[in-house]
Amino acid sequence: MGYHDLILRPAYPDDAPALVEIVEMASEGLVTHVWQGMAEPGESPRDVGLRRARRGEGAFSHVNATMATLAGRVQGGLIGYRLGGPEEIGDAMPSMFVPLQQLENRVPDSWYVNVLAVMPPWRSHGIGSRLLVEAERQARDSGCTTMSIIVSSANTDARRMYERFGFGFDTERAMGTGDWTNPGTHWQLLVKPLA
After folding, report:
1. CA angle (180, 181, 185) in 5-degree steps
2. Alpha carbons 70 and 51: distance in angstroms, whole number
3. Which of 76, 93, 108, 153 has the most neighbouring CB atoms within 10 Å?
4. What is the average pLDDT value for the chain, to the nearest integer?
5. 96 Cβ partners below 8 Å, 6+ apart?
């Protein structure tokens, strides 16, 4: 079984456990921290993620996800969608989200690669590149003329992959971590124009 056996397919509600794992990897722990604050009594952060992945709406939902499978097992995934117009940043927005929203507001109407991750045993086998090709196809099909992605300044491997794929550095914002920690110091916005 190898890379040539890879199948890309839309995600389904039953993919929620794999989606949660992929998002936890891609967010470097941020999403677990967020879900902890959203948990109902008796609910774990993972339960929140599963509930949100199964729903049929919202940015983090199976409806925006593509799964990469080998022999029927999910080995990676992608969540992407078209950003709307700039969103207001009010006093109620938690400080850790302000820099992320500032960066998203720079690229309205772009195809935003919110999540891209590959399971550890299958990294460096071209799955991430295949998912990026799929993201570009989705972007073009939606009529977008630009793609965007935000990465941690500590995630140099991911940034190199995106740059090989044609993304260029646009700008960065200092992380507003609050009580969440990350080895990076900045969120970096990368942009790819689509000809």
Report:
1. 125
2. 25
3. 76
4. 91
5. 30, 175, 176, 177, 178, 180
Give me the pLDDT at residue 180, please: 74
Domain 3-193: CATH superfamily is Gcn5-related N-acetyltransferase (GNAT) (3.40.630.30)
Please work out, in degrees rounded to the nearest 5, the angle formed at the alpha carbon of residue 139 by the alpha carbons of 133 and 142: 145
Q: How far apart are CA 97 and CA 190, in angstroms?
A: 17
Q: How far apart are CA 60 and CA 81, in angstroms?
A: 10
Domain range annotation of the chain: 3-193
Q: Is 148 exposed, middle or buried (0-12, 13-18, 19+ CB in 10 A)?
A: buried
pLDDT at 146 over 80: yes
Contacts for 171 with CB less than 8 Å, ≥ 6 apart: 103, 106, 188, 189
Token pair in block for residue 149: 């992605």
* DSSP string of 117-182, one letter each residue: EE-GGGTTSSHHHHHHHHHHHHHHHTT-SEEEEEEETT-HHHHHHHHHTT-EEEEEEE---TT---
